[in-house]
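Design a sequence for this backbone.
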């Protein structure tokens, strides 16, 4: 089951990009003043990383799930954690998620992407984990 896009601010014609602080607030990675969650019941959005397999192990946000952009473009389903929650899409620098958001929204998924990607995430000193939960880097 997917969360369908509504007609509000995050709707099909609405805003498609969010800043790193907004992404952190929406995905439960820390309250950031002046931001709001995109869900009604306080449920955190899912952070969906669309990077390739060789980029993921070096460093990713804790709790993120991965679905490479080519798999999404080929019609692969969302990871179970993202089935009924809004999705915040991220990659290394912020280019691939724009395409992923278009694909997801066409399927009725409430999705936005993060301006600046994981590089901006790390620059904002948000958590990045690597192998075995150690501190990671953005490759």
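Sequence:
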């Amino acid at each position: 089951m997917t969360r369908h896009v509504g007609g509000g601010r995050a709707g099909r014609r609405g805003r498609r990009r969010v800043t790193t602080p907004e992404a952190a607030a929406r995905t439960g990675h820390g309250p950031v003043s002046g931001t709001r969650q995109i869900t009604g019941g306080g449920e955190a959005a899912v952070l969906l990383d669309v990077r390739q397999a060789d980029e993921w192990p070096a460093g990713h946000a804790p709790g993120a799930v991965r679905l490479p952009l080519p798999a999404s473009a080929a019609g692969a389903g969302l990871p179970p954690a993202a089935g009924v929650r809004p999705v915040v899409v991220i990659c290394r620098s912020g280019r691939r998620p724009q395409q992923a958001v278009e694909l997801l929204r066409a399927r009725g998924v409430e999705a936005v992407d993060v301006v600046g990607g994981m590089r901006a995430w790390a620059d904002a000193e948000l958590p990045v984990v690597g192998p075995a939960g150690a501190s990671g880097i953005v490759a």
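Helices lie at 20-26, 69-73, 96-106, 117-123.
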